[in-house]
Amino acid sequence: MSTHSLPNPDLCTPIVVGRVDQCSPERPEPHRHQRYQFMCATTGVVHLWTSQGEWVLPPSRAVLIKSQTDHSSWVTKPAEIRTLYIDEKVAPDLGEYNCALVNVSPLMRELITVCADLPWNYEADSKAARMAQVLIDQIQEAAQAPVAVPLPQDPRAARIVETLRLDPGNKEPLSELAKQVGASTRTIERLFLKETRMTFGAWRHRHRLVTAVSRLAYGEQVNSVALEVGYESTSSFIAAFRATFGTTPARYFKA
After folding, report:
1. Cα–Cα distance between 117 and 94 in angstroms, integer?
2. Does residue 248 contact residue 241 with C-beta atoms inside 8 Å?
3. Predicted local confidence at residue 19, as pLDDT
């Protein structure tokens, strides 16, 4: 449910228009916008899919999605989501990526709150427009390449992905997983490298860590999450987390 009327963000004139939604668990069909989309959870956790992969966004992170990008976002528990739609003429350049993660600083959080509640028909030379431009500048400075889980398309590799999604702590060797889907180890390695640009081992490592982000965001303890996603100890998990995300699990969730 939106806090104010927003007929169609793609048809609006201002450089940024926004909305606030109270979201219930569901997974909508993929869709796209003519504008860039900037999404941040006030409460709860956002799960996001694009053709380049899947990842999880706690309240300390936002995502900027390029215009004309097929995507789907959902929550597994009730959440409040602020979504801004940015005119592509003023949006940051994302290069080869169809989206970018953004660290949400206290200043950016306030700007998101203000811009999400702006009327959708404000004037170009108004205070609201200047506020929106400040937010765009902040996004430009904070945007970074996504730490996503790219998804293979081949049915055999996709079945292995589903097995590990249901059991991220699975420790079966690739040879056994490949046998279960009727393929050789070499074939699965080739498919992952071709379709995700990652070796299977690197993909599995990334998947475990992104799964861990989701569970930590919902308040689970680091030591239990580390074991659930397949690490032998909390210290080895924290080291792997820091190597991938550039910070510890505790600091990752602080804006």
Report:
1. 26
2. yes
3. 92
Closest CA to 55 of 126, 147, 130, 121: 147
Which tokens sit at 65? 């999605």
pLDDT given for residue 3 in this prediction? 43
Tokens 């239990």 belong to residue: 224
Q: Which of 210, 105, 196, 97 is nearest to 150 (CA)?
A: 196
* The pLDDT of residue 137: 93
> Over the stretch 121-143, which tens digit does the pLDDT of each residue have?
899 999 999 999 999 999 988 87
**What is the model's pLDDT at position 250?**
87
Signed CA dihedral, 245, 157, 183, 173: sign only: positive
Neighbours of 184 (CB within 10 A): 13
Interatomic CA distance for residues 9 and 6, integer angstroms: 7
**Are the CB atoms for 255 and 104 separated by under 8 Å?**
yes
Residue 120 has pLDDT above 90, yes or no: no
Summary count for the chain: helices (H), strands (E): 9, 9
**Closest among 220, 226, 216, 211 to 252, alpha carbons compared:** 216
Rounded-to-integer distance, Cα 168 and Cα 188, Å? 18
- Alpha-carbon distance of 80 to 68, in angstroms, equals 24
Separation of alpha carbons 17 and 201, rounded Å: 42
Is the predicted pLDDT of residue 1 greater than 80, yes or no?
Answer: no
Give the whole-angstrom CA distance, residue 111 versus residue 106: 9
